[in-house]
Amino acid sequence: MTQHPIPSKSKKARYLAAAIPLALLAACGGGSNNSSESTPPPTATVPPPVATVPPITTTPEEPATPPAEPTFATEVARHVDAATKIAGTDALLLDTYKTYYCMFAEDRLDLRTAARNDTARVPLTQIYDDAWYIGNRYVGQYILKSGSGFSLVDSLNNANEAQTYTVPALNSLGMGPSLPLNSVYLTHGHGDHDGGAVYLKNNFAPQILLGSADANGKAYTPTLIDSTDLTPKTINFGGRQVTFLPTPGHTAGSTSAIIPVHDGGRQINLVAVGGSSMPSDINGARSYLDSVERTYVLAKQIGVEGSIHPHPVFDGTLKNLDKLAASPLTQPSPFTVGEDRALRGLAIYRQCAAAWVAKIDATAVIPVWRATKLDVTAPATGSSIVTAKLSSAWGPVAKQQISFMANDTGSTCVATTDKEGMGSCELRTSPIDPKLREITATFAGAEAATYLDLPTKATLTVQ
């Protein structure tokens, strides 16, 4: 079992930087939306990356002071605006993550009702080489296949659904003595997620994983994930190494996961969140926000390129299922959106969770998370001067360091951005082969009183 320490909030900006080289509905049908549990994450110190070559550092003469943030009537509006800015013109992020995660803070009861009532069946749909969705348009489950058998994410609403939908799907995919159903991971203990667990346990005897805080009175006798230990743990789950992270908030025992799958033979990591509905008490809401932040940190540390969700409306899963209904699976899967896009989706999710805290507690002042990007410019012919622009939806990011590396030689240099967010420095090259072939620029992130500029990196292949 591998453990991944998660830092305290005071060290979160540095941890986000160190993680670079490594990387939910009030409509939930089962149970209450309230939770009173709020547990701060354990502290951990993560050393910064060490350059292999002493860097060259250049600093502009008079870098500008970053522009002041605009003012908003409420803290809720400030965080919803930030979620919208992070999404930008990206329809996937704007129409799913921002629309549905922020619907609680924006009082969009119409969206919540429409999502809950959209219960048309979704047939068994292949989403990756070794992963399938089955259920309905409101809630469903995922089937994972490996050389040792099958595993499930959630168990549908009840025994009848498990018998009518899950078992025939597994049989059609080859379940048998050599490929049994061996594992079930329940995102949390509400009935629309664990309703079929007793039937599956009685008929197939899989190991069923559930957060310990949701386990009281469960007849399927789950194997417990300790909800009080917020440290991520990687275990063998159905023949693949899955990292589980307790994320209390939606319920006290909600558990998120990073799940490896294969896309055209290439292994990628997906994030699955443990619950969507945001609790109505302030302690539960703060715990939920903390859980989303820790999920982002873990996703960055491990490196995720996509998302799956038991309630498919939240993260684009439903849109992708509609695409696959119209056209068979090709590679890359529509679920594979890339690390930057996947992390921006989680950053939007975090902003919506922050807006919800502010909705409950009008005195709350919570830093905004601002997604950043780097645009690297190829050096002029014969030059070893490298340049990148650091920016966000809020504008150029000034007075911050950009670290450059020549990936073929390991040489490095560091530049500080000017008022336009531009930074340039000289990378040492080999006298034998002076050409720069691949350049990676990295921004380690920066924290101010009212916002946190998230880390980012970009790689340019020089033609």
From TrEMBL:
Keyword Amino-acid biosynthesis part of the UniProt annotation: no
Listed GO MF terms: hydrolase activity
Pfam families: Lactamase_B (PF00753)
Organism superkingdom: Bacteria
Ranges annotated as spanning the membrane: none
Keyword Hydrolase: yes
Annotated region (Disordered), positions in chain: 30-69
Biased composition (Pro residues): 39-52
Signal peptide: 1-26
Comp. bias (Low complexity): 53-62
Keyword vocabulary terms for this entry: Hydrolase, Signal
InterPro entries given in the database record: Metallo-B-lactamas, RibonucZ/Hydroxyglut_hydro
Domain Metallo-beta-lactamase: 138-311
Name of the protein in its database record: MBL fold metallo-hydrolase
Taxon lineage: Bacteria, Pseudomonadati, Pseudomonadota, Betaproteobacteria, Burkholderiales
